[in-house]
Amino acid sequence: MISVEFLITSLVVVLVPGTGAIYTVSIGLAQGRSASTYAALGCTAGIVPHLLATVLGLAAVMHTSAMAFQVLKYAGVAYLFYIAFATWRDKSAFSVDSSAAGTTSAGRLIGKAFVLNILNPKLTIFFLAFLPQFVEPGAERPLLQLLGLSAVFMAMTFAVFAVYGLVAHAFRRRVVESAAVQRRLRYGFAAAFAGLGAKLAFTGK
Hints:
- This protein has one domain (about 15-200).
- It has eleven helices and no strands.
- Residues about 95-100 have low confidence and may be disordered.
- The protein starts with a helix and ends with a helix.
- The chain is globular, with a radius of gyration of 18 Å.
- With about 200 residues, it is an all-alpha fold.
- Helix 2 (about 20-30) runs antiparallel to helix 11.
């Protein structure tokens, strides 16, 4: 059974801006509504392996294995810095009228967002600590409950990220019609991704 406490807690967790939310907003501003939806879909898909790891008990291995955590962590750090560098370099990223603004394929947008979340080891640890709290004590089928909780969390993640993207799209032309604003947004999002990478690098288990 999905409790009200689980829904409220999950909503609060999903609403807190993180790597996926920042990426979705940046895509919404740069490429519009459809692209931000693909980004939200990729970010949601990126949490599936972490949820499966929790449900199948593999998260316990990562929790006890410093090596596994560190390898995944630094892969995530490297990818965040790559995204930061790519955002900083792409001068057409936030140009509404740029011929290149809408050329990124759906598959590529989903893929980048998927990798962004799958390389965050904190998600596995988070789900290991978070989901079991909402499984009914003495439940006959705890695995089914975990799967149900995971499905609801994924649906909420996609819905919230999609809304973030829609809001970014709504302000797109007003915000980025100025070349100076485009440049500031590009540097700002690049700094945000670099900051997230630095934060992850100094994060322990």
